[in-house]
Amino acid sequence: MTTLAVGVVGAGWMATDYHVPAFTSHPRTRVVAFAERDADRRSTVEEELSVPGYDDISSMLAAHDLDIVSICTPPSTHEAIFIAAVEAGCHVLCEKPLALSAESASRMADAAAAADIVTQIGYLHRYYRNYQRAMTILSNDLLGDLVEITVAHHSAPPSQGWYYNPTLSGGGVARDLFPHSLDVLFELFDESPDVTDASVRYLRDRNVEDAARASMTFGDVPVELSATWTQTEGVSRVLVVGTEGWLELDSKTLQGDVHGRPFEFQQGSLPLVDLGIANLFPASDEDAHTERIHDFADHAVAGDPDTSAPVGRGVAVAEVIDAVYERSGVDPRGER
Amino acid sequence: MRVLVTGATGFIGLNLLAALEETDHEPVAMVRPSSTTTRLPDGVDTVEADLSDTDSLTTALADVEGVVHLAAAVYDTASMATVNTSGTERLVEAATRGDIDRFVFLSTIGAHPEVPADAESTYQQSKVASEELLFGREHPFEVAAIYPTYIFGPRDYRLTRYEHVRPIATNRVLVPPLYTDAKYNIVHVDDVVGTVGRCLDGEATGRQLVTGPNLTNGQVLKAIARHTPGKCRVVTVPYGAIRWGVKPAMDLLHRVGISPVPGEGFLERGDFGTVRPALTEQAPVDQRPWEAALSETVEWYEAVGLL
């Protein structure tokens, strides 16, 4: 059985905590090299992983016959790395946000289209079991006709400096957090929304916005998105209202009601015991990060480009986020 | 035969439309402007009409030869008299003026003349009131009325049977007060829609019972448990244990503020459609087993993400 050789670009926490362990635990992929610009970090990780590190993607591609490149660097670097990997014939898993703008994302999509490769953007939410269960409930029309959706995603302010540098990040919290929710919404509606209103705020006098709101319509369903970098422990919650019921979920709890019949799941599971006045849920081994990376690896092994979120999804998401900034009257890539 | 189906977006309606796809009958789904039509099979004809609006019914009946009248207010007591009785009357009258060959009415077990009706049930009384309308007079079309007991099956979008399944799926041991005493007569929704088909074919007319065997609480709950994820063990206890054990215990828990309700409700003895022995297991079709009705309901809840 052949295994696919993986090169990881960027050796930050996303790479060492998630990408490297997941490609290592997948039976058909192995990490053979990584690239990291920072020399200190490179030697630390080289020692930790016992695989060679390179100072950029081109030297890594020159030294190894890679099948997969996974990109865990800041957004401003994605386009060049992605295109280099694609031109080398590699399948690509790229962390979100895909690019600084929809234009940049489109150039990446064009490059991928010209090559016979598999791509996936690293959206996470859809891999939580609650989200998968909610998608099943919604795609089976259990709530009747959808009336409205509200998404609130409030996380801790990121610790790395590049998030606050608009030329590296392509914007603030909207660019950072909206992609996860938009990916799920695109999956649910299978069409692009109209952004009808949007605004951003600068709560902590940073160079990028740390609060963003957007109103959009998918077909005739209004959707409200709100995101901030304000919390110690983040919360990301979705409320879906239909003509015959509702459901609300975050990654831990999914609750809802259809025609007055309530239901509740935790991490996708029913209770072990439900006495009406108290309930107990089973312990969960859920690991959405590993699942998304394994899902990509499965597609790469099969040569199946129809991943959960190919690069085209990344373009669609970037278009919405660009529209949010335009509606807000700010240039996400410029200084304030 | 081209057939107008009222209540097409309901539980039996959706199952009927799915079943009619395999036959020569061509359904026209009568929908209200507020109806959710996304669940209708692809390509099925629809017509907007309302049982409260005679003109709309006349238009809806213009190019059909048959009527299957499933629409009814089942849970909203306030609308039962207007929808179930007056609505049926308007539909029958419109059908009389139209060019209709067959009229199939979905009644309920308690409205059958040989089954004692529950005087407390507004729903049953509303169906009893339709009896006279259908069988007390001459019609220019053949009339069939179907009297099913407690129906189980897929496409239960209103989750009307979920309360029987969820406690089993969410507990490893099921023991009172997690369930109350009850008895059942269960039929598969396929038997009901199959009977509608026989009536449309002209092979069954008049009153048609669709009944299964009478079943105990233990039989039903254990069958559900066999097909539900989680491998719940159902413990059946004699009613006396509920009366003298569970009720006082719940009263106590209520007094100390743990249970939101006192024990009285747990004494309830439900009867979901049982009939006298001579009337069990009757239908003008080859019947599906009652256990399949339960297992396919559970499978459907699983498929749509609710289990």
Report on this model:
- The complex is a heterodimer of chains A (336) and B (307).
- Chain A has 336 residues and is of the alpha/beta class.
- Chain A folds into 2 domains: 4-122 and 290-309, 3-Layer(aba) Sandwich (Rossmann fold), CATH 3.40.50.720; 125-283 and 318-328, 2-Layer Sandwich (Dihydrodipicolinate Reductase, domain 2).
- In chain A, 35% of the residues lie in helices and 27% in strands.
- Chain A has helices spanning 13-25, 39-49, 57-63, 78-87, 102-114, 129-139, 166-169, 173-189, 288-302, 311-328; strands at residues 4-9, 29-35, 53-54, 68-71, 91-94, 119-121, 146-155, 194-201, 211-218, 221-229, 235-242, 245-249, 253-258, 261-266, 273-274, 279-280.
- Chain A is globular.
- By secondary structure, chain B is an alpha/beta fold.
- Chain B has helices spanning 11-20, 54-60, 77-97, 122-135, 162-169, 189-201, 217-227, 239-255, 290-303; strands spanning 2-6, 26-31, 45-48, 66-69, 102-106, 142-148, 150-152, 173-174, 181-188, 206-210, 214-216, 233-234, 269-272.
- In chain B, helix 4 links the parallel strand 5 and strand 6 (142-148).
- In chain B, 48% of the residues are buried.
- The model of chain B has no long low-confidence stretch (mean pLDDT 94).
- At the A-B interface, helix 6 and strand 15 of A face helix 5 of B.
- Chain B: Residues 3-196 form the NAD-dependent epimerase/dehydratase domain.
